[in-house]
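Pilot study result, target chain (140 residues):
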Amino acid sequence: MPYTAFETFEHGADIGVRGYGRSLEEAFANGAKALFSLIVENFEEVRPKEKVDLEVSAELLDELFVAWLNKLLTVSALEHLVFCDFEVRIKEGTLSATALGEKLDPERHLLGEEVKGATFTLAKVEKVNDHWVAQCVVDV
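Predicted structure:
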């Protein structure tokens, strides 16, 4: 089976995001890529020109994943940034990350879905065989 880094999936009126990884951190990073692939239709055109450091904490991994995505959405909206790559570190319930991206440019970035927030619907983070999967449904 070919390796898939991330994907989206239909869920009623909303959309799910799912990240896969050989490590927990890679799954969280790829889940964020799934999120921004919804927001920017030509996601592959987003350039890693600016860096933003972020940190979120939660007791459970599924809570941490939802908090991570919501933090990214907040920073994206407040700073008018779109992200394309993520360096994630997770230790003892705290996720520290560097998000890389650029200012939103309506001339270059084809806007897709307006994502309002990540939810706990179908939220789960688990290890399946030798890969991690992180997923949840986002409100669009």
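One observation from the pilot: Residues 6-139 form a domain with the Archease, Possible Chaperone; Chain: A; domain 1 fold (CATH 3.55.10.10). A full batch analysis is planned for the follow-on phase.
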